[in-house]
Design goal:
Elements: E1 2-5, E2 8-11, H1 29-37, E3 44-47, E4 55-59, E5 67-69
Antiparallel strand pairs: 1-2, 3-4, 4-5
């Protein structure tokens, strides 16, 4: 995970279990932090369709919550 802002750059690496085709997608980091702050679970499931479709965030098991995070368009 990479982040670029006026104050500097950040790079974060997280272990993931991945299924499907590779996908390059960008999010506002504050939106993801808002989801993480409100989840008590150590593991979550993030469901993607395309790099411009909303991401559905759910618990690894069960259905205690569902969050929707919208991606941002980036130009490489």
């Amino acid at each position: 995970m990479n982040s670029r802002a006026e104050r500097g750059d950040v790079r974060e690496e997280l272990p993931v279990l991945f299924h499907g085709q590779p996908l390059r997608i960008s999010f506002n980091s504050q939106y993801l932090m808002d989801v993480i702050k409100n989840v008590e679970s150590e593991e979550i499931r993030m469901c993607f369709q395309t790099n411009v479709s909303p991401c559905i965030v759910k618990p690894k098991e069960g259905n205690r919550f569902t969050f929707l995070v919208l991606p941002i368009r980036t130009f490489d």
